[in-house]
Amino acid sequence: MQGTDNTTIKKMIDEQLSEKRRIHTYAVAEEAKALANRYGADPEKAETAALFHDFFRGISEQELNDYVLQLGFKTELLNNNNLAHGKIAAYMMKEKYHITDEDVINAVSYHTTGRPHMSNLEKIIFLADAIEPNRKYPGVEELRKLAYQDLDRACMLSLERSIDYVRSRGCYLDEDTVLAKDYLIEEIKRKEYENE
Ligand SMILES: Nc1ncnc2c1ncn2[C@@H]1O[C@H](COP(=O)(O)OP(=O)(O)O)[C@@H](O)[C@H]1O
Predict the structure, then answer these.
(1) 119: nearest Cα among 130, 127, 107
(2) pLDDT for the residue 20
(3) Sorted alphabetically, which Pfam families does this protein's record hold (predicted)?
(4) How far is the CA of 138 from the centre of ligand 1 (A)?
(5) pTM passes above 0.90
(6) Does residue 142 lie within any of the structural domains?
(7) Which ligand 1 atom sits closest to the C-alpha of 173?
(8) Nearest CA to ligand 1 atom 24
(9) Is the complex ipTM more than 0.85?
(10) pLDDT in tens, 115-168
């Protein structure tokens, strides 16, 4: 794959990320590789996307807002690192680290929200982030199990939970998650129909 190699990215992680984020990042990378092997995706690409997914999670609010404005992201991303960090990482992967693989870049860009028509790699990164072994929240075990049984249904479950969680907190809900869920409902129905 073109661009900065995974060994170099790991050195950057060791030097620049906090211990907690480093542990989470490496755990997502291991989980993503395992899911890639399970579903026939490329483990090296899965690792690259996982290594970058939270690389810009720790930037200051000022820096975050500068990126959002400079890059022309929607204003809802201002002061919203939950939604902005993946988009910023995706941009920096291309511009600074010369990663050219669009699937890897999209997997990072949409790892928080999901989106309709997600590729297998996008689904894998979305789920690996949600189920890596350090994650502890009600229902995580059910999702862990489902992730290795049915990629689409596992994504659906996690998307539904994200929507409920964000709504319950009264926060801005990015529509990509709702659109991703609606898309998967139809996709699951379509696959069932084809298999009948
Ligand atoms: N559609 C959405 N709109 C707003 N917030 C969301 C949406 N989807 C997820 N979130 C929230 O974004 C936060 C960050 O999630 P995530 O990117 O998975 O964490 P991290 O990248 O740090 O591992 C979570 O608290 C989640 O509830």
Answers:
(1) 107
(2) 98
(3) HD
(4) 16
(5) yes
(6) yes
(7) 3
(8) 82
(9) yes
(10) 999 999 999 999 999 999 999 999 999 999 999 999 999 999 999 999 999 999
